[in-house]
Amino acid sequence: MALDTEFVRGQFPAFSEPSLQGQAFFENAGGSYTCAPVVDRLTRYYTQRKVQPYAPYEASRLAGEEMDEARTRMAAILGVETDELSFGPSTTQNTYVLAQAFGAWMQPGEAIVVTNQDHEANSGPWRRLADRGIEVREWQIDPATGHLNPEDLEDLLDETVRLVCFPHCSNVVGEINPVTEITAIAHAAGAFVCVDGVSYAPHGFANVGRLGPDIYLFSAYKTYGPHQGLMVIRRTLGEMLPNQGHVFNGGSLYKRFTPAGPDHAQIAASAGMADYVDMLCSHHGGPTGKPSERGAFVHDLMRAHEIELLQPLLDAVKDRNAVRLIGPSDAALRAPTVTLALTRNAEEVAADLATHGIMAGGGDFYAGRALRAVGVNMDAGVLRLSFTHYTSKAEIDQLLTALDRVL
Question: Is the pLDDT of residue 399 over 90?
Answer without folding.
Answer: yes
